[in-house]
Design brief:
Bound molecules: fe (ii) ion
CATH topology of the largest domain: Metallo-beta-lactamase, Chain A
Mean pLDDT: 97
Number of domains: 2
Strand content: 15-25%
Radius of gyration: 25 Å
Distance between the termini: 59 Å
Strand order of the largest sheet: 1-2-7-8-9-10-11
Length: about 400
């Protein structure tokens, strides 16, 4: 079995490796496995754990903790984030010491109650709160949505270590724990960001602002290598990836279109021409052949999303549902939308897509339009009016 690893004097990694994990959360591929990092911090008065590990790894975790302290003597568990890959062994810590204090955000307390279904001693922390372990001071930074609403960062003041849980992590299971002992893992670091953190770019900006000016010697995330020599690089990468969408200039419409027989595409072209005439730039995506990443980037820059869909077998085609599913994987710049399309028999798709957009908290800026088979001249006039309404709404929002 693995051993604990010293990070600095009085701070040890007591996490576990999961090298053969191939899909994280049953959602994201993890070609290089992952780790569940937990840290034991020993002050002269108290001992704290920062996060735990996924429940099936609890035995190995406690064996590492036991190298330093009887686990029944742990005073504090800081729960930076309650997702079970980090809180999975909290129940067993409570079994060993029911009086242990759990430092966490208010949201985390609520989540933990329903994850554990038992009582526990919670200490709710706010921005800047500190706890002194005896020569080692933990300071808390409230950073909601990195990755859940409950998330906080913990900062070890004397050693200048940042424990940001999921943020700045990577699903990457190295042989050695520190970044300067292994090959670079940028692709995994970037892919992890894309899967886990990208939907919360605005929250990342808030979190980075709170960390501004904080001296940080190491970034000790909860997945993947500890950044002993590249903490600033990780922070700067997040700052770059999460920069606010560009502003100024003409507003932008993203049109995502699927057209089986060319009719929906003809409508799209008329709508696009009118939008441009009204002062709105257009970026058009053919849903059947677009790259997901290009579309996701465009969503983060677009002032309005227009979806053109035919109806096939009384439904919108899978490509359209896929484009809708990708919305929650990014931070859209705006949540304005409108839907149009051609159909042959029944024409349900436009309404269905409108309902989905509404469910995703989009505001529909024009009533959806759909026409049977080849649009007539009159139908195309309606398309122009539709575009005028969309443009008016977008220009008003500017
Ligand atoms: Fe998480
Ligand atoms: Fe995690």
């Amino acid at each position: 079995m693995d051993k604990s690893i010293r990070v600095v004097e009085g701070v040890h990694w007591v996490g576990v490796r999961h090298p053969d994990l191939r899909v994280f959360d049953d959602l994201f591929p993890t070609r290089n496995g992952t780790t569940y990092n937990s840290y034991l911090i020993e002050g002269t008065e108290k001992t704290a754990l920062i996060d735990t590990v996924k429940e099936p790894f609890a035995e190995e975790f406690f064996s590492k903790v036991s190298e330093h302290i009887d686990p029944t003597k742990i005073d504090i568990v800081v729960v930076n984030h309650t997702e079970p890959d980090h809180s999975g062994a909290v129940a067993q810590v409570l079994d060993k010491n029911p009086d242990v204090q759990i430092y966490c955000s208010k949201a985390a307390e609520n989540f933990l109650k329903q994850l554990l279904n038992r009582s526990f001693n919670a200490v709710i922390v706010n921005d800047g709160d500190e706890v002194d372990l005896g020569g080692k001071t933990l300071r808390f930074i409230i950073t909601p949505y990195l990755h859940w609403p409950d998330t906080i960062f913990t900062y070890l003041v004397e050693e200048e270590l940042l424990f940001p849980c999921d943020a700045f992590g990577a699903h990457y299971c190295p042989d050695k724990l520190f970044d300067d002992e292994i090959n670079e893992f940028y692709a995994d670091f970037h892919f992890y960001f894309d899967c886990i953190v990208r939907p919360f770019k605005d929250k990342v900006r808030d979190a980075l602002k709170k960390c501004e000016g904080l001296p940080i010697k190491m970034v000790c995330p909860s997945h993947g290598p500890i950044r002993r020599s590249s903490g600033q690089f990780a922070i700067e990468s997040y700052a770059r990836w999460c920069a606010a969408p560009s502003s100024g200039g003409r507003p932008k419409a993203l049109m995502a279109v699927l057209s089986s027989h060319g009719n929906t595409r003809d409508m799209a072209n008329v709508i696009a021409t009118e939008l441009k005439a009204q002062g709105v730039d257009v970026e058009m995506f053919a849903l059947s052949e677009m790259r997901d990443d290009d579309y996701r980037d465009a969503l983060e820059q677009a002032d309005v999303l227009l979806i053109g869909t035919p109806t096939i077998q009384r439904d919108a085609p899978p490509h359209v549902w896929h484009a809708l599913a990708l919305i929650s994987s990014v931070t859209p710049k705006a949540k304005l939308g409108a839907v149009f399309g051609s159909f042959g028999w029944s024409g349900e798709a436009v309404k269905m897509v409108e309902q989905r957009l509404t469910g995703l908290k989009y505001k529909l800026v024009a009533d959806g339009i759909s026409f049977r088979f080849t649009p007539t001249m009159e139908n195309m006039d309606v398309c122009r009016s539709f575009a005028e309404q969309v443009a008016a709404a977008v220009l008003t929002e500017e």
